[in-house]
Amino acid sequence: MNRLFRILFPALLALSGAVFVLSCLDSRTSDTTAVYTYKLVNTYPHDRNAFTQGLAFENGVLYEGTGLRGRSTLRRVELETGNILQIRKLPPQFFGEGVTIYNSKIIQLTWRSNVGFVYDKESFKLLQEFNYPTEGWGITYDGKRLIMSDGTSTLHFLDPKTFKQIGRVKVYDKRGPVTKINELEYVQGQIYANIWPTDRIARIAPKTGQVTGWIELAGLLSLQDRSPLVDVLNGIAYDAENDRLFVTGKLWPKIFEIKLIQPK
User: Fold this and answer.
1) For 236-259, how does the pLDDT look when each residue is reduced to its tens digit (9 = 90+)?
2) Which of 8, 22, 96, 154 is the most buried (most CB within 10 A)?
3) Based on the domain organization, do 118 and 20 belong to the same domain?
4) Could you tell me which residues are beta bridge partners of residue 25?
5) pTM of the entire structure?
6) Buried-exposed string 140-167: b where 16+ CB fall within 10 A, e elsewhere
7) Both 146 and 245 in a single domain?
8) Exposure pattern of 26-37 as b/e (b: 16+ CB <10 Å)?
9) Residue 75 neighbours by CB under 8 Å, 6+ apart
């Protein structure tokens, strides 16, 4: 009996190890995170020349940050018409990125310059510059903290007065780390994040970094509205007063108001 056990034990051990590995792989690849679809509510015109990097909404108007060196801007935009009501051009060496509203100020990131700008919300006058050690991608405000993405799986929490980091969280789903986190918007206690260069938006729990849901927006921009210059989905804005969600993309001709459809 002992001799038989010595012969069979290594084979049994190898088999149990293989079963364990396969079960782990299955659990990592079978992502059961909720998947949301959408209903199209309204469509609004959008400047085809706007390489949208950040989007925010307040008091009936959009605030938009655009990118590309020599073309980066901060804009106030009339939602219904797409008209640019106010614009400030960034110096040509900067590649503009995400924007957010903090009280009476607008905060705008840049990509690889490690510099952010703080503007007066009404006049667009530059009030302050601040620095950060990472790339700048997306930024939003949760009522207490600034939340910033840098293209990795990490979200950084910043003090909105000092811009010092006061925390961070790694974003993940059942497959592992979620990287390429881009434009951000804080929506009813969740962080919504464009994942570059996809047509998906992640819903992220701020405390844990867990992706609690995926919003699938493939096909939102019709083939008729596409052109060789059209780039990826990027830009999320939320009208908290009226519970409206807006999305667009880089060089897209339209902004879409959508209503999420809960998974069954």
Assistant:
1) 999 999 999 999 999 999 999 999
2) 96
3) no
4) none
5) 0.88
6) bbbeebbbbbbbbbbbbbbebeebebee
7) yes
8) eeeeeeeeeebe
9) 50, 62, 63, 64, 65, 66, 84, 85, 86, 87, 88
